Known about the structure:
It is a single chain. By secondary structure, this protein is α+β, with helices and mostly antiparallel strands. The chain has 2 domains: 2-222, 3-Layer(aba) Sandwich (Rossmann fold), CATH 3.40.50; 237-341, CATH 2.40.50.140. It has helices at 42-50, 96-101, 106-119, 135-147, 165-182, 193-199, 217-222, 227-232, and strands at residues 2-13, 16-27, 31-35, 57-62, 65-68, 81-84, 153-157, 186-190, 202-207, 210-215, 237-244, 247-250, 253-260, 266-271, 276-279, 287-296, 301-307, 316-320, 327-333, 337-340. A 6-stranded mixed β-sheet has the order 6-7-8-3-9-10, with helices on both faces. Helix 3 crosses helix 4 (135-147).
Amino acid sequence: MTGLTLTALHATHGRSPVLDGIDLTVEDGDLACILGPSGCGKSTLLRVVAGFHPAAAGQVVLHGRVLDDGRRRLPAERRNIGLVPQDGALFPHLTVAANIGFGLPRAQRRERVGELLELVGLGGLGERRPHQLSGGQQQRVALARALAPRPGLLLLDEPFAALDAALRAELRREVAATLRQAGTTAILVTHDQDEALSFADTVAVLRDGRIAQAGTPDTLYHRPADASVARVLGEANLVPAELTGARARTAFGTLPVATTAPTSRRGLALLRPRQLRLTADPAPGAVRARVLGSDFRGHDHRIELRPEGTGLPDTLIAYSELPWGPGEAYVGAAGPVHVVPEAAGSA
């Protein structure tokens, strides 16, 4: 069953267009993510779905009910949509239990609040105030409060942004598990590709008010539609390639092609940093490069390189288990590769 459907959705701020023909479907019970940089229209899209901003044209449909068609708009309070804001927005003078039960009919509060406290892992903390909780616990309370009225759709507006990296990853996993357990359809808005890839069933990359590509995390990471999407989903080395059947001729030699997006014989071969191999001595298909820097990241080293010769970008990024100091190295590549169009969307 389809949960949320956006069709040819447009929105403006005054006379300035912000959303330019958004088409997106989120199946009932799925977790979706809108991914993109600041200013691409993510927050406006969230506000249009929630009912805080009008659509200029197009449709917002939730479980078969039209919420906005550019002419008639259902008020936010009648949409059965929950929202978890970035800062949690808890009432500081109320207990955790009172925050979660706020707005529920009195007869339902005790049972529903107890159920949600257990669901979000805060059993026994109902009488505490928000200031007595950690940042992660406060966001769990905000999640529980949003789930309390059993919304048909839950919107999460970068709810992990203010947390430190380790807590952010832990809470992200917990929230995803909680939503799946509750069977809630949800949309997360973020600019963090790790967050998008690990959280969602469907990721939609938003660029300049349009969805550049939507699909599973695996599809977008390994088979992006263009160079821009490739970069949004993680560090990418994009190397000019000439296609001949299922092979791509590059500066690294001829590499097998897994999938291809271009219709011409030329394109850009996508090489993720883990596909590059560094050696101290020349090897078949390797190019000479200068190591510009090496950053230790615990599990590996991120190596920045300046390749010599033509047919390669100015800078290459490789991940290596071993450290590399400044100096000369040789870089080879391992296929198969995905090839994206040479020009469109590559900026």
